[in-house]
Predict the structure.
Amino acid sequence: MNSTSIFRYVLLWIVLSLVIGLLSGAASAIFLIALNWATNYRESHIWIIAFLPIAGFVIGWSYYRFGENSVKGNNLLLDELYKTEKPIPLRMTPLVLLGTVLTHLFGGSAGREGTAVQMGGSLADQLTKYFKVDPADRRIILIAGVSGGFASVFGTPLAGAIFALEWMLHRKIRWKSVFPAFLTAFVANWVCASLFGVGHTHYLVDLVPPHTLINLLWIIPAGIAFGLSGRLFAQSNHFFSHLFSNYISYPPLRPVIGGLVIAGIVYISDSTTYIGLGIPRIVEAFETPLPWYDWLVKTGLTSFTLGAGFKGGEVTPLFFTGATLGNALSSWIPLPLALLAGMGFVGVFSGATNTPLACTVMGMELFGYESGIFLGIACLIAYLFSGKSSIYSSQNLDKKFHLYPAEGIFKTSEKPTSKKDR
C-alpha cells in the first residue's frame, strides 16, 4: 500500500468513525436514559408488571407488522457481515429501542447490549447509502457500529472495539478493521459519557491475591463452571426460542403467553430481584454472600423472556449469572469473593459469546488491571469449556477449538475437508 492509499484510508475512516461514533454514542445515551427511567418507574410501581402480557403483544405485533428481518436482531448483523446481501433496515433502531424499554418497564428479564449493538449497526449501515463502499468496507462499517454501541453502553471503549472484532470476525481479524473499530469506540464512549453525561455502574474488586501456583490452579475449576454456565445460558435461549416458535404459530401471541408466565412468577415469588437488568444484585455479588441459586434463576428467566419474543440483550444477564455464580463458588474455592464474582462476571460472558480476549479486557477496564491474570485465565478456560455454543446462532464457530470435560482432550468443530487438512 503506497502513501496515497494510506492517506485515503486514514481520511475515510476518520470521517466515518467520527460519524458512526456520534450516532451510536448518542443512541446509547438516549437508550440508557430511557432504560433508567423505565427501571425506576417499575420498581416504584410494581403493579405495572401485571400489564407485561399487553406490552408483549405490542412488541410482538410491532415486529410482526413492521420488523421484517429486524426480528433476527444481532444475528442479522452477523449474517450481513458474512454475506453482505441487504442493508440493515433503519427501522431496527426504533423497534429495538421501544421493545427493550417496554420489556424493562413492565418487568421482563433482559439486558441492554443487544439493543445498543443493533442500534449502532443499523445506524452505521445507513451511511452506505451516502458513501460508495465495497462489501469489504461495508463489513468495516458494521464492525464500527457494533464497536460504538457496545463501548458506549458499558463505558468500556477498549473492550467494545475488541468485542466487535472478535465477535464478528472470529479468528479472522483483518487489520483494516482495527483502526475504525477503536476510534469509533472511543468517540461513542465520549459522546455517551461526556456529551450526554450518562454514567455507568462501578464494581469493586478490592483484594487480588498473589499469583502463586495454588491460587492460579484454583482458577481452573472456576473457569470450567463459568464455561458450562455460559453453555447452559446459550442452549436455554435457543431451547425457549424454538419452543415458542414451534408451539405458537402467531408471533405476537408468544410474548403474551410469556408475559403471563413471568408476571405470575413475580407475583408468586413476591420478588423483583431477577427481572430487569438486575444491577443491584450484581453489585451485591461483589460484597456479600448470596443464595447459591441466583445464577440459575436468572439464566432461566432471561432465556424464557427472550425466547418468548421480548427484546433486550443477553450480556447484562450474563454478568448477573456469572457474578452470582462466582459468589456461590466462594464457599468452595479459597479466592476472594469479589475476585470470584469478577471472574464469573466476564467468564460466563466469554463462554456464551466466544470472545475471551474482549471479556478479559473488559474485566480489566471495570475491575482494575491488577486482576488481569485471574480474569484472563478464567475467560480462556470458560471459552474452551463452553463447547460449540453461542447465544448468537449465526456466529461462525466452525474453527473453534473446545474442551469437553468428559473426554479431556482438545476438540475442533471443523471437520477436515481434504487430505491436506487431515
